[in-house]
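Thread: iron/sulfur cluster complex, take 2
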Amino acid sequence: MFAPEAAPAASGLTVVKPATERNETLGAVLSPSQANTFLNCSARWWFKHSAGLADPAGGSLVRGKAVHKLVEWWFRQRLAGATPEIESLGDIWDEIWEMQSADAQFAKDDDVDGLKKSGAKLSRMYLETVAPEIEPAGMEVKVAGEIGGVRVIGYVDLVDTQGTIHDLKTAAKTPSGIGSDYAFQLATYRQLLPGANGKAKLVTLVDTKTPKLVTTEYQVSAADQLATQNLYPRVREGIREGLYFPNRNSFLCSRKYCNFCDACTKEFGCSIE
Ligand code: SF4
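Output below.
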């Protein structure tokens, strides 16, 4: 993104200047996750999607993805007419965990065994109490279309026969509501998913001492949809202009949750814990 300038700064660090050339090929197709990454920290978007730096999953993300995969497997069995016994999911869980952790980069303080056990417990809680109530219509449904003149694609984890989107997250703390990034994702699906009714149910599996399950219902508003129509083109414009900024105030800005800290401090200075 930046071209190094010859002269070193007084501190001995290399000064870098923004590139001036616009790149019309970037951001041709966006996803809600890419747009949210850009809005949260544009430098992070650059390191991942344009510079192509490795971004392996850490412990919490591996657990979240493994829980998703197990739940997806269970619903696929349901769609195929089977009723899988929750008691007998141990081998499938081991297999899914192995797959999800194969390319992971666990942090020194990640308790990998503890994460695997808690993931199994949280999945079971969801499959026993929430999943039986849902009438699935589709899993990992690909959606595509145009929003604000920008080509957008995404994958909806689970949609039921009423057109309600069901989502699942794992978290260490009780959520206080729906974040603006999630509202943006839902507003995207509302416009791209045929038959979507604009409603969503998010279940957060909270890994506290006594694990708990928090259900949050959400109705996508006209304002949410307007935000996507205004922001997708601006995100694409920002990407193409090539002016990226680090957001050290981002809740993801830490060595535990961002894989680009070294590249970021090298390019922009400061330090990150
Ligand atoms: S280290 Fe922080 S500022 Fe830098 S890319 Fe990651 S989240 Fe953004």
